[in-house]
Amino acid sequence: MQHTDIPSRDTILALATARDPKSVSIYLPTSPLPKDSEASRIELRNQVDEAQRQLSEAGADKRQIAAITDQIADFIEDRAFWTHLSNSLALFATPSGLKTFRLPNRLEAAVEVSDRFYVKPLMRAATFPQTAFVLALAQNSVRLLEISADDVPHRIEVAGMPENVADGAALDPVAGRAPAGHQTGGRSGGGITTAGRIQGAEGQKVRMAEYSRAIVRALRPTFTGLNVPLIIAGAEPLVSIFRGVSTYPHLATQTIAGNPEEIPDAELAASARLILDEIYAAQLALLRESFADRQANGRASTDLSDVARAATFGAIETLFVDIDRSIPGKIDAESGAVTVDAADDGINYGVVDEILRRALLSGSQILAVRAEDVPGGGAFAATLRFAA
After folding, report:
1. Can you tell me the distance from the alpha carbon of 106 to that of 125, in angstroms, rounded to the nearest whole number?
2. How many angstroms separate the first and last alpha carbons of the chain?
3. Exposed / middle / buried, residue 1 (Cβ in 10 Å: 0-12, 13-18, 19+)
């Protein structure tokens, strides 16, 4: 089982804007398997040695270095924590504090010392949070699951949720009944009885629509204000009927096919994560197409100087960054002019990370992705709010 602490955008922004002359950022690939925890602890000790070397070169005195390394040493000795990991660990330390995050994404190992934290890899979890709802929809039952990066999905109790098709019909205020006193014919297999209820296959579809509307009403308070994908697990024709009455704007087009009463929650979660990957891939493809269109009109760039200036003056609309590449150097706070250094050290910082930081402050959309998903194939790319 994976254990995660995915930071919110506000948390990442707070880390990105924090300043301390001796800020240490460490990223460590880990494993959710407890048997692998000792290897992760050993690797973190090696990374601390590298951070100590960079701190010494940056002029930190022994007390400052000890304040950082002692905190991390205490953390390494917390064996209970090390048996509850995910795929990566991010650690941010200064002489006065330590913060850690367990992340579902597989990140490359990194050690950065500067006057600010290295947050670019942390954005990967925020870009693709691996969170969704699954509505397991059958005629005789319905359940709502919340899917996250953890292996175990969580069932959500929804007030007013109908138990089955018959219950949904009873709860539907616009149920398809004939007007009072209306006399109907007695067609077999699809007519309307004197009780005013459509019979046969047509009548069953009417009851499914009533059931679906009751579910939509029950879910509305839970989904209000959210932009999390909702994935349906179910069979036809109920799935299509539900889609026809649903008003949730983030209903996924993909379906987990089959009778969800026969599919365990864990299997539904695994299928939902595959669908989430498809959703994110489609979103990235659209954004890359938009980048190409914008670039033709002077509203997109892959030039370091242009993008740094745009970030400085709040002109970036969407920023793509390769989470695994770093360009050492600095960016002038006023002009956005870039100075690139030949090597990383404890004085400079990653200029792409600084571009990301400035874009965050201006409310830009940030996409921390793999190299193949960055338009142009570089370390970064940006669409702009206005032509350069």
Report:
1. 10
2. 48
3. exposed
The torsion region of residue 257 among left (phi > 0), alpha (psi -120 to 50) and beta comes to beta
Backbone angles phi, psi at 351, to 5 degrees: -70, -30
Pairing verdict, β 132-138 and 141-147: antiparallel
Question: Residue 183: pLDDT above 50?
Answer: no
Q: What is the DSSP letter of 178?
A: P
According to the model, what pLDDT value does residue 193 have?
44
Q: Where are the beta strands (DSSP E) in 264-315?
A: 300-301
How much is the pTM?
0.70
Domains of the chain listed by start with CATH number: 9-127 (3.30.960.10), 132-282 (3.30.420), 297-384 (3.30.1330.30)
Q: Can you tell me whether residue 380 is helix, strand or coil?
A: strand
What phi, psi does 269 have (nearest 5°)? -65, -40
Instruction: Outline where DSSP puts E strands in the chain.
Output: 23-29, 88-94, 97-103, 110-114, 132-138, 141-147, 154-156, 230-234, 251-257, 300-301, 316-322, 328-331, 338-340, 349-350, 365-369, 380-384
